[in-house]
Fold each of these.
Amino acid sequence: MIGKIIRTMRRENNLSQEELAKKVFLGRTTLSDYEREKTDINFEYLEKIANTCGYDILFINKKDKTKILSSKNINRKEI
């Protein structure tokens, strides 16, 4: 399912796989593998692709409906 979302974001921005891959510093074949769900994508690259295509990643707590926007509310720290 995530591959279809990546493909949709890319196409909505009229980007070829080659163009998007260059913008997020990936190989075109790697991006293709993500879109076909041949390879699992890590969150860092998913976030880069989303941000490049003008999207944010939103997490919603099922219990209390609180929201966390990945690009604004998360402070990354090494554990």
Note: Residues 10 and 69 are 20 Å apart (CA to CA).
Amino acid sequence: MGVSLTTVAALRAAGHDAIHLRDEGLIRLPDPEIVAKAVAESRIVLTFDLDFGDILAIARSEAPSVIIFRLRNQTPAAVNPRLFRVILDCAATLARGALVIIEDEGFRVRRLPIRP
């Protein structure tokens, strides 16, 4: 949600099976349905929307992994290098289920399910 088509194109160019909800005409899909779609398709959700962390915490689910961007600069030039660093550094954790928050200073990882 809110991730640039340019970022999706960069992921595809790097060999990742990335889709954008806009590509499928689903730009207005409610957040819980995005989560269900990601689980069904074994995808990672990329978003600027903090609500996804709450959805995972409430559901106590083990999937999908979600990467949330909390960056001052939200352009692909700022997002993409950080995203690719997280993919490289956290591939195994993302495959098992994680919430990753990418911030200007770095990133934080919480394994799923999130427990209070």
Note: The first strand starts at residue 45 and ends at 47.
Amino acid sequence: MSKRILLVSAALVAMLTASPLRADTLSEALAAAYANNPTLNAQRAATRAVDEEVPQALSGYRPSINAFANLGASNSRGFEQRSASAGITITQPIFSGFRTVNGTKAAEASVKASRESLRNTEQNTLLDAVEAYMNVVRDGAILSLLRENVSFLEEQVRASRDRFQVGEGTRTDVAQSEARLASASADVSAALANLESSRGVYIQVIGRAPKNLKPAKAVDKLLPRSLDAAIGASRTDHPAILAAVYNADTASFNVKIIEGELLPSVSLEATAQRDWEDGFQASTGNSAQVFGRLSIPIYEGGQVYSRVRQAKETLGQRKIEIDSARDQVQAALVGAWSGLESARSQSVAARSQVEAARLALEGVVEEQRVGQRTTLDVLNAQAEVISARITQVQAERDQVVASYSVLASIGRLSSQSLGLQVATYKPEAHYQQVRDKWIGLRTPDGR
């Protein structure tokens, strides 16, 4: 007896000290997607590439330095002469028709547009992660419900067979129960396939396999109280609109850059040179010169004028795209807001439906025991319960996803607003590292 007590005590200690199975929360999944999603990381790299347009534009203020060397030989009337020279030339731009100024402003506007595009990609990635997470939760819950249904129907098949054996039921009751069981088993197989598909998308978006996902809640506290307030916030915060505005700024500066090609340009050029000669009239000497260069364009065949007109048409296009972006954002926001309200209503209705269906099933089962209901009545009542519970699961999933969709449609779905435990990517850091670099082939991270 004492040995048995010791074994039981050891089992209890093991149960108490064992670590619980790790469960992922939605916040943890979003943090993983924010850090690891390849699409998001690719957009970050694209933003860093756009940062380099600013030092390229600033190079118009800086001098250019070139070294040169010449080596030659000649023969005239039997006299051979060899010569060589080497030197260095420094050219400093003084005035370039304001092209450097406007080029720098255009590059900075492109950087801002790229940052907004990155922020939009971050929003889309986080929203995809929410959908992937909730789809796994939904499909896992539906699979559990359908397996419970199979267990219930297996018991109904057994009970109908027993009643048939004692003469209290009919072969029809048995056949109906078996048919429902076969259909339920097929539903389980389909639900399992759906779950595996959702798990695959989860891994693709978030970067790791789902483990014991916990149910999530909607982010209603982060949303405006009315649709009008949400629309107003989206017009000032949504990255798609802001990116369109900055793209229009870039196009405006591009017009000025091309127009600058029609203006005079001034530069200062200095050359230092050493010459070597031998043979006839051999001589060696050094020379240096400094001179200013003024270039005034007169006519270049009409190409620049055409490019100016083309740039103005592009500017008009970019301005129209601002209005288009506002319309698209508003349409998406209205749709997401309507979807959220619908999901809330469906969730409330589904809970009531589930409770009513359960009570109805309990009543039908009791009435069957006293002969007032048939097996088919029980099977139909059970089907209504399963259908109602699946509707509830879907509505709860839709409510969570719709709330995040509204947050994204406003332009406020970010790691900071969600309070994710992950290092926030700051594109400004790379911009400051490369903006004033005069030389160097390595990127700030050492590549």
Note: The two ends are 70 Å apart (CA to CA).
Amino acid sequence: MHPLPRVTDFKEEIDALKKQAKIKGEPYIEIVALELHKRLGMPAGNHRMATCCDAMYAMMINERGDHIISAPPKGKGSTLTIRYNL
């Protein structure tokens, strides 16, 4: 059985995605919670969605201009989309 991902696991994946986009010369990357959730082997549903969203918010750097593109009414959910500037 695959262990449930922790906040640090989601943060590491976000960091890896940001690095890949930067290598490609992208000015930013937009990450959607559902896609990040799936990348860590979690099926659709809310198994670790709150943890995923917590990690996404924690990885924002306001000084760099990172911002929320869209968020569900309660702030955490599969549609959360954040733009991280590189």
Note: Residues 7-23 form the longest helix (17 residues).
